[in-house]
Write a structure and sequence with these properties.
The structure holds 2 protein chains of 2 kinds.
Chain A: H1 2-8, E1 25-27, E2 30-31, E3 34-35, E4 38-39, H2 40-57, H3 67-87, H4 95-111, H5 129-151, H6 169-211, H7 217-253
Antiparallel strand pairs in A: 1-4, 2-3
Helix pairs in contact in A: 2-4, 3-4, 3-7, 4-7, 5-6, 5-7, 6-7
Chain B: H1 2-35, H2 40-69, H3 74-98, H4 109-117
Classes of the chains: A mainly alpha, B mainly alpha.
């Protein structure tokens, strides 16, 4: 797998900080003309799902929770509060979706932070724009379809805020539409860019540690700090993704308030 | 005893309501500071992506229309400016909903989001 090749190229400055984002096929699968191989990205998605499911499902029986169970309960409560605060009671039915979304992104971000290639080379699923765009597109298309399903053509009122003078409408409606279309773009780019920039930065600093010899202690110390920051960013970006999804779904629930 | 209970049941309901509101308020208060943690970096990044994404979408639409209608470069120019406007509007909405000091304080979100769409 990827771990052997990436470690083999380790020669001081020759280490490629972008190598970590490369996709490699593990089980090649051809589906008609489409390459549907099981890649390292797929593998880490599966691992994310397994890890998150294990955290949330296993060991939830105790009344006095263990540490791991506390983490699971905190995540549940956190998202539960968020869903209630942003969407109200009507939004309860979206809670499972938002919880899944948040846990998947958080899990993928966190698993990607494991620096040691023990068996497999760690891969951050969310550092690929196509993955984040698929997630954001799912939210966006889902919210749009739900909005039209719930309000019919009345959902279009979202693009024409009431109280605007009719003269302004030809200018304002295109702006509103562009703003609406930019939602999945900004949602996906934000997560992807944060993850990719963070991991590239970590790799670059890790190269300095090797290249500087004994003085490599200094970038090593910086690395420790950065890793902490990355953990924060991993959480924050998952949170931002989830809360913005909530807001978009809330717009679909109440377009004209 | 049964009659006594019936008589006082509206009062008791009211009391229960009061207690529920109090509990809700305390829960809200407990949640608020945690959500309001200012994170300038995240906030700045969020604004940047909103702005850039809207401009990118505007340019993409303009470029596509130009290709389709063979009208270079008029739609591109027009939708570039519309995209900039949309981006500025996005940023304006974010700053309105957060007061500019935090990433996404949820306690304020619903009401403000609603205002925007009016």
């Amino acid at each position: 797998m990827a771990s052997t090749t990436s470690q083999g190229s380790e020669g001081g400055l020759a280490l490629d900080p972008m190598h970590q984002f490369e996709i490699s096929r593990i089980i090649p699968i051809k589906f008609g003309g489409i390459d549907a191989s099981f890649t390292n990205s797929s593998l880490w998605m599966v691992l994310t799902v397994v890890a998150v499911s294990a955290l949330l499902l296993l060991g939830t029986k105790r009344i006095v929770p263990s540490r791991l169970q506390s983490v699971g309960e905190m995540i549940y409560e956190f998202i539960s509060n968020m869903v209630r605060d942003t969407m109200g009671d009507e939004g309860r039915k979206f809670f499972p979706f938002i919880l899944t979304l948040f846990c998947f992104i958080l899990g993928a971000n966190m698993l990607g932070l494991f620096a040691l290639p023990v068996l497999l080379h760690p891969f951050t699923v969310t550092s690929h724009i196509i993955v984040t765009f698929a997630l954001a597109g799912l939210v966006w298309v889902g919210a749009t379809v739900f909005g039209f399903y719930k309000h019919g053509l009345g959902y279009l009122k979202l693009f024409a805020p009431s109280g605007t003078p009719p003269v302004m409408l030809p200018l304002l409606v295109p702006i509103e539409i562009i703003s609406y279309l930019s939602r999945p773009v900004s949602l996906s780019v934000r997560l992807f860019a944060n993850m990719m920039a963070g991991h590239t930065m970590l790799k670059v600093f890790a190269t300095f540690v090797v290249a500087l010899g004994w003085a490599g202690v200094i970038p090593l110390a910086v690395m420790v700090g950065f890793t902490g920051l990355e953990v924060l960013i991993a959480f924050l970006q998952a949170f931002v993704f989830a809360i913005l999804s909530c807001m978009y779904i809330n717009d679909a629930l109440h377009p004209s308030h | 005893m049964g009659g006594d209970r019936k008589k006082s049941s509206p009062e008791r309901l009211e009391k229960l309501g009061d207690r529920l509101t109090k509990a809700q308020v305390s829960v809200d208060e407990r949640n608020r500071p945690r959500q309001r943690q200012p994170n300038a970096l995240g906030f700045a990044f969020r604004i940047t992506t909103e702005l850039v994404a809207a401009v990118a979408v505007g340019v993409a639409i303009g470029w596509g229309l130009d290709r389709w209608l063979d009208s270079k470069p008029w739609f591109l120019i027009m939708f570039f400016f519309l995209g900039v406007a949309a981006g500025v509007m996005n940023v304006y909405r974010i700053t309105q909903s957060t007061g500019g000091d935090g990433d996404v304080p949820k306690s304020k979100l619903p009401s403000v989001v609603d205002d925007d769409d009016d």
